[in-house]
Amino acid sequence: MPVAAKKLRVNNQRAVSATLDGTTLTLEVPAADKGQIGFVTAYVGTSVVPIGGAIFDKQRRLLVDLGNLADTELRLAVQDEDGKLLGWYQHEPTVEPVAEELDGTETVSPATTPTSASPKNSAPVGALDGVLSGIGVALLFAAWGAIALRRRGAVA
User: Fold this and answer.
1) Tens digit of each residue's pLDDT (9 = 90 or more) over 9-30
2) CATH assignment, 5-125
């Protein structure tokens, strides 16, 4: 279960640091143990995106493929297999890329990612959201029309 976004505070960040190479972010989590499984969750605006899990290497690092979120301001929380918060990282899109090979380290990538997001805590809006909103408005007008016709028929 992902940690609630409001629980990601400066006092529990736990010195998590990261470097970005293209869309791959290398997270260093001092609270993790070598060989421990870490689960990563991204917080983009008001959206919570489960990224996945990976095993920490001997330097307590794991790789996260941010994909289309690489240029987006977000927070990444890392939890252990029991759900305990190991720390979190504030990703800023201006991080300089660093090329570094990590032997034996797995890369995790999001199962689903928002199509767009604003760093001002607004929810991402996709094409499906627009279609569903249009259908909702059409249904609302149809209901109003049906009520108006029934009232008109009752009056006549």
Assistant:
1) 999 999 999 999 989 999 999 9
2) 2.60.40
